[in-house]
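Complex 469.
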Amino acid sequence: MTENVAQPIYDWEGFGFDTRQVHAGEYPDKNSGLRVPPIALSAGYLFDDFDDQVNRFNGSIHWRSDEHPGHGEPGGFSPSEHAPIYSRQGNPTNWVAEERLASLEGGTVSVAVASGQAAISAALFALAQQGEHIVSTGSIYGGTRILFGRSFKRFGIEFDYVWDADDDAEWERAIRPSTKAIYTETIPNPRNDITDLRRIAEVAARHNLPVVVDNTVGTPALIRPFEHGANIVVHSTTKFLTGHGAAVGGAVIDGGNFDWDAAERAGRSYPLITQSSRPGVPSMLDRFGRGAYARAVRESVVNDIGPTLSPLHGFLLHQGMETLSLRMERHVTSSLRVAAWLEQQPEVLSVDYAGLPSSPLHELAVRNYGADDAGRGRTGSVFGVTVRGGVDGARALVNGVRVFSRMTGIGDTRSMIIHPLTSTHGTFSPEINERLGITPGLLRLSVGLESADDLIRDLRSALDRVAAL
Ligand SMILES: Cc1ncc(COP(=O)(O)O)c(C=O)c1O
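Predicted structure with pyridoxal-5'-phosphate bound:
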């Protein structure tokens, strides 16, 4: 291996979140001393000689973990990390983003991919195959529900939904012998109806199932699902992590805390992780221990299907994460101001923000997300508001804003507004939308980094149009 290939030289374990978001994953550039990890635009990599090529392809140079201990993970690096072959499997720019994100989430290894949808797909394809089954909580991002009901269905993987995550009987009815994972989100949108991850993790543990959590809206700055018993985290890095609305991306993070052997013994088989793929090659679990799942995602799913993150976007991602906690602080502070103010407006019927004392989820919000000085839970910056007048009221509000952008998307520096019933949830049946609380007057807000005073003024002048109906 050449000296210049990325080798993390710092052990950032034990350092604070703000330090790790700036430094984790960085590596020294011995050629030119560049301080900012550069954009490595190369589809392939030079092999030193014939044997180096052989060893990189069969992966043997990195099977033994102690030679190259990676970020907090006993499993060491896989061939595509730090002894790369081709950029579909890995790229030095993306490694920075991957290690930084693994460090922030407190996981072992992460895999960056081209979008949030790609992350969810890769995460679950590594666990389930045709004829198998996954249980999801009911309130999840609309695009994910469409992905599950369309593409996963066509591949023969079925989903059942649990609507009341506190209801053990509902879980027991949904989980089958062929179930391979439980899927949920930290802060679902549009209604900020947060989940009690610990309860879900307890149910999963009873059934030897890994819990996969989409932490796009929560972000590791507000909640780290592995601390609540989750096993795998996925992200649309398009949102808060990259942070500026410019680059689509995604990531899968391995918590390194799921006992694949115990699951296998209990009759739940995960062949990509626990079984050898060809004679003479040990299983991912034998080779990579606590990083085995992420290696299965990278080498057995992403490498096959090819949703690779461009290094340009990998750069924007690792740079975006440097300011994550600062941005999230402002996102949450402004959201709490806007949400509490909205509740007082005569044109507003309700505000769905779990952290507000008026929410039935307030106690859970404070427990899992901490409280501000006024005792309100810090549950992110994406939430719902329902105005008087149904669709007409919603239209008046959307048409009346200037600072808020009328667009789909969340987690940008810019504030955004959208009408879920006619957009993100437009293809769902009336029954599903009723269960999800997607009503004609509901709007989704994503509060950005503008001045909260300006956001409130903007909403007030738009609400005047609602009042005039
Ligand atoms: C919670 C959540 N997960 C996943 C996705 C999909 O991410 P992407 O648009 O990056 O594919 C989104 C997109 O809005 C999302 O909000």
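The pocket of pyridoxal-5'-phosphate is lined by residues 115-117, 141, 143-144, 185, 189, 214, 216-217, 236, 238, 248, 250, 410 (CB under 6 Å).
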